[in-house]
Design a protein that fits this description.
Strand order of the largest sheet: 14-1-6-3-15
Helix content: 10-25%
Strand content: 25-35%
Number of strands: 15
Radius of gyration: 20 Å
Number of helices: 5
Mean pLDDT: 87
Low-confidence stretches: 279-289, 291-332
Structural class: alpha+beta
Shape: globular
CATH architecture of one domain: Roll
Length: 332
């Protein structure tokens, strides 16, 4: 199938403002791009691109002051298949894990494993290792957190989401990632496009957050927010948590003024849209139930030219810099 997707996002600044964006499709999907993915700025500005330490495409500009809009619109091909399910995927002993996945066992800004370790083992310690344990985490997080876009909080950690039992799709992902890491399962945070393809349409569209775990020598996709297999995920960036994949980072004040995202199936003349699959076929195999533990108290165009990844440590904002967290998804 083909998917038409893109965005138009505007910011208001009060003078020359350095900005960095993670809005380009991840290099792993470049071979699927059908029409050019061209990032356009209005007013026109010079833009430079590089790969960050996680392999994501970063675009840097100096916004001139006033309103600036970044946009794109392109078509990408997709298999049209539901997310892969491998119930017998095994969990690796920590000592057998590849070096490159070890950072995804550690705590991070939003995945505060030190506060969730005991909780994770009390909830999931008796579940079978491997795929079934990760699915048990998804089942729990999906029902434990109540989705409410109006209560999005850019400072909410995984432990906060567990305690408050509310959040948006990034909070579902953060809590699931943190639980998996506590259980010695490497997990990384993902952001990207996920249109309502093969499912009922729930407006308004937005970017989405999900996560991947390392089992049986490869990464697999899981989605605690939706907790069902989906069609047409287009990954933009991967990292330890939302800090690493913020759609924009500004090094002075940049106020969000407009935010539009579209992700739609391209229906050829005479063809029908992808039907909504039966829920029974969409749901993963059943896993052991987990009893819930009570919550704790409390216009220039830039076409991507991707250089070789630099062997560098993750960038740290300089003193006084402001890290802009990606807007929380209205619909995940």
């Amino acid at each position: 199938m083909k998917i038409r997707t893109g965005y138009a996002i505007s910011y208001d600044t009060y003078g020359p403002t350095p900005m960095m964006f993670l809005l380009s499709v991840h290099p792993s999907r470049h071979s699927d791009i059908v029409t050019p993915e061209v990032m356009t700025f209005d007013p026109p500005v010079e833009a430079k691109q590089h790969l960050d330490p996680f392999g994501n495409i970063c675009t840097r500009i100096l916004a001139p002051g006033g309103r600036i809009t970044v946009s794109t619109d392109f078509v990408i091909s997709d298999s049209g298949e539901l997310d892969v399910v491998v119930p017998d995927a095994r969990q690796h002993p920590v000592q057998d894990l590849p070096d490159e996945v070890m950072p995804f066992l550690l705590g991070s800004r939003y995945c505060d494993t030190d506060r969730l370790s005991d909780i994770a083992w009390s909830l999931f310690g008796s579940t079978p290792e491997g795929w079934a344990r990760v699915q048990a985490v998804c089942d729990f997080v999906h029902t434990h957190i109540k989705f409410n876009y109006q209560e999005a909080d850019a400072t909410r950690t995984a432990f906060d989401a567990y305690s408050q039992q509310r959040g948006v799709c990034r909070d579902y992902a953060h809590l699931a990632v943190a639980f998996c890491r506590c259980l010695n399962i490497p997990a990384r945070y993902c952001t990207g496009y996920l249109g309502d393809i093969g499912v009922p349409v729930v407006p308004p569209p937005d970017f989405s957050a999900w996560f991947e775990v390392y089992l049986d020598d490869r990464w697999y996709t899981f989605d605690a927010r939706n907790n069902r297999r989906r069609i047409g995920r287009i990954v933009i960036a991967r990292g330890r948590d939302a800090t690493d994949v913020a759609i924009s980072t500004s090094f002075s004040t940049a106020l969000l003024a407009k935010f539009d995202v579209h992700t739609d199936e391209v229906v050829e003349p005479g063809a029908a849209k992808t039907p909504v699959p039966e829920q029974a076929a969409a749901k993963p195999p059943a896993t052991p139930s987990v009893a819930a533990k009570p919550p704790a108290p409390e216009s220039a165009a830039v076409k991507a030219t991707v250089p070789e990844p630099a062997a560098a440590k993750p960038a740290v904002a300089e003193p006084g810099a402001t890290k802009a967290v990606a807007p929380a998804a209205r619909v995940a």
